[in-house]
Amino acid sequence: MAETIFQNTIEKAGVTETWSVESAAIGWWDVGRSPDRRAIKTLKKYGLDSKHIARQITKEDFEEFDYIFGMDKANMEDLSKLKPEGSKAKCLMLGDFGLDINDRIIEDPYYHNGDALFEKCFEQCEKACDAFLKEAMAGNV
Q1: d(Cα 52, Cα 45) in Å, to the nearest integer?
Q2: This prediction's pTM
Q3: Which of 101, 95, 45, 46 is nearest to 75 (CA)?
Q4: DSSP string of the chain?
């Protein structure tokens, strides 16, 4: 969902020519799969559509992209281990932007029943993506 939300954020800001957005999983288990049906439903509720097919993060991603985001502390630890020494990407926790300190962990809603956590995830990602883009465009990241 974060990929689709951030893509929408840069489109609304009119900066699609200067940003490239992709999503990649740390683990292999979802590679080749579409987003969860509840994620698609939540995105559609807000007029967004995802054609994303999951892929696993690669060492090359740390050179290709300026920023790589994790959603929680475990993601950040994994990214730190995967990041090649000297690579250019900054690994950041998305929830550190625009979210209250007590709400900065963006929990993976996949493991919960129902749609409620997908809705919360959407709201967190939307706020965080907007706040990050403003910070980045101001040169503060």
Answers
A1: 17
A2: 0.94
A3: 95
A4: -HHHHHHHHHHHHT-GGG------BSSSTTTTPPPPHHHHHHHHHTT--------B--TTHHHH-SEEEESSHHHHHHHHHHSPTT-SPEEEEGGGTTS-GGG-----GGGSSSSHHHHHHHHHHHHHHHHHHHHHHTT--
Look at residue 57 and tell me whether its pLDDT is greater than 90.
yes
Interatomic CA distance for residues 116 and 18, integer angstroms: 34
**Residue type for 128, please?**
A
**Residues 5 and 26 sit within 8 Å (Cβ to Cβ):** no
Amino acid at 82: L
Report the pLDDT value the prediction gives residue 111, as an integer from 0 to 100.
87
Name residues whose C-beta falls within 8 Å of residue 19's C-beta, 6 or more positions apart in sequence: 10
6: amino acid identity, one letter: F
